[in-house]
């Protein structure tokens, strides 16, 4: 599960936290990895039996929860931006942006960072789309899974 470089980077960051005495935060962040994975599996299972727009919206909610947990897993609980703004625990777009700014730095990786943002936007759109279709739900789940892969889940 953690064979690629991105996941090793996350593990190194977590190991650095342990060495600096922040074991409780590491445990919480580990729980978020599990929650993200569980939410993705739950969305995939729900997709196989989805028939109504409400079912599709629920898949969007699971995907949004997965992205939120994923973002919490790779960033500190008390994340603050350079301008001093504290980032909400549920602000997955900003949290993923902070993580990917380091993990996928450089102008050649701008599309990767944009993809993660669009994945968050897509899940939020699906949650609120009263005419959600199976196509929308499949696309959202695909984007969520791809974002998880990008981050290293």
How would you describe what is shown here?
With 153 residues, the protein is an all-alpha fold. It has helices at 5-19, 23-49, 53-73, 92-103, 110-128, 134-151. Helix 4 (92-103) runs antiparallel to helix 5. It is globular. The model is unreliable at 1-26 (pLDDT under 50).
Secondary-structure map:
Layout: H1 5-19, H2 23-49, H3 53-73, H4 92-103, H5 110-128, H6 134-151
Which structural class fits the helix and strand makeup? Answer: mainly alpha
Rg for CA atoms: 16 Å
DSSP summary, beta strand count: 0
Instruction: Report how far apart the termini are.
Output: 7 Å
Contiguous uncertain segments of 5+ residues? 1-26
Strand content: under 5%
User: In terms of quaternary structure, what is this?
Assistant: single chain
Portion in helices = over 70%
Largest sheet: none
Count of discrete alpha- or pi-helical segments spanning 4 or more residues: 6
**What integer is the average pLDDT?**
85
Gross geometry: globular
What is the string of SSEs from the N terminus onward?
HHHHHH
Q: Which terms summarize this structure?
A:
mainly alpha; globular; 6 helices; 153 residues
